[in-house]
Write a structure and sequence with these properties.
The protein is mainly beta. 1% of the residues lie in helices and 44% in strands.
Length: 342
């Protein structure tokens, strides 16, 4: 594995924005930058061996600051929503930064996705780190996080998040990787086919706050237990799909076991013959079909299968707990195995 690094630019404070390229022997590569610990591009072959970038991202480092689409970025402290921006931990109530219809969304206005991370090369991987102080966006505890990126000779991208804290706090890190297996800029992803190992979907109210109810997907537009075209259900009234103009739904992974890497599903593009298998240790995924995408992209030009914990889990004891204690160690891993099919 070859790793290159270059200075991509500098912030207004003079801090370096670094671009990393991980390239394997076949010429496939992943590019990363330390703004938001982001995946900038993923260059992989189609069924005929032609390489193309399948990840949404930007050509100019400045676009990664204030990016509304959060293209490829690492989200934290907590991905998804915390309802009304309030939570109670050990009997104490905390009020968090409000930045969305549901309350607190994706770590707040100054969440991890908009920050410059420290970064380094460790042998055959890139590691980025960030410190979040006690009270940051309203969260308790000093939190130290790392994001490790590995890319191998079989075109598998592995992303590992680890964290430690000195005070109990919720942690739910996720990578908002937006994919278009036909190639970035090639048009809509609604002809992509998706399979998810998920027999339920989490219901949300009109403010997109989870109700706590799990809906069975059998016979509905949310049934991706076998390969299904994304565009088939985007105008459905089921669970507010029409209101959202597509999918932006959380699916619990069937058979999930804590700290065990398990298969989540697969995304395919028949035109290019590219496919990606997704594995994760996270308890669920958010499927987002690029509705109101922004960031200079048109709607449906990318799809994200974001491996993460349940939204609003800190307020719902029936969900897997996102709380990290001072004597605990947070570690979550997601793997994207790129390949082809005939």
């Amino acid at each position: 594995m070859e790793i290159e690094q270059q200075i991509w630019g500098a912030t207004s404070e003079g801090e370096a924005v670094v671009l990393y390229t991980l390239r394997n022997a076949a010429g496939a590569e992943v590019r990363l930058c330390n703004v938001g610990a982001a995946v900038v591009s993923i260059l992989v072959p189609d069924r005929d061996g032609h390489l193309a970038d399948v990840a949404l991202g930007y050509k100019d480092f400045r676009s990664y600051f204030g990016d509304p689409a959060l293209c490829g970025k690492s989200i934290g402290r907590v991905a998804g929503c915390i309802a009304y921006g309030t939570m109670r931990i050990d009997g104490e109530e905390y009020r968090l930064d409000i930045n969305g219809m549901a309350g607190h969304l994706n770590g707040g206005v100054k969440g991890f996705a908009g920050r410059l991370w420290e970064s380094r090369v460790e042998t055959n991987r890139v590691v980025m780190s960030l410190s979040s102080d006690d009270g940051d966006q309203g969260y308790p505890g000093n939190l130290q996080v790392e994001a490790a990126f590995d890319f191998d000779e079989d075109n598998a991208l592995e992303i590992t998040y680890i964290a430690r804290t000195d005070r109990t706090t919720p942690v739910n890190m996720a990578c908002n990787l937006l994919l278009n297996l036909g190639g970035e800029g090639s048009g809509s992803v609604l002809d992509h086919e998706l399979r998810l190992d998920a027999s339920t979907v989490l219901e949300a109210d009109d403010r997109l706050i989870p109700t706590g109810k799990l809906l069975g997907v059998a016979g509905t537009p949310a049934d991706f237990r076998s390969l299904r075209r994304l565009g088939e259900g985007v105008d459905s009234d089921f669970d507010r799909i029409r209101m959202l103009r597509g999918y932006d739904h959380f699916f619990p992974v069937d058979g999930w076991r804590q700290n065990i890497l398990t298969e989540v599903g697969e995304l395919r593009d028949a035109r290019s013959g590219r496919r990606v298998e997704i594995l994760s240790s996270q308890p669920g995924v958010t499927l987002y079909t690029g509705n109101r995408l922004g960031g200079g992209y048109r709607d449906y030009e990318g799809v994200a299968v974001v491996c993460q914990g349940y939204p609003d889990a800190v307020n719902r004891p029936e969900f897997p707990s996102p709380l990290l204690a001072p004597d605990g160690f947070y570690c979550q891993k997601t793997v994207y195995r790129f390949g082809t099919f005939r």
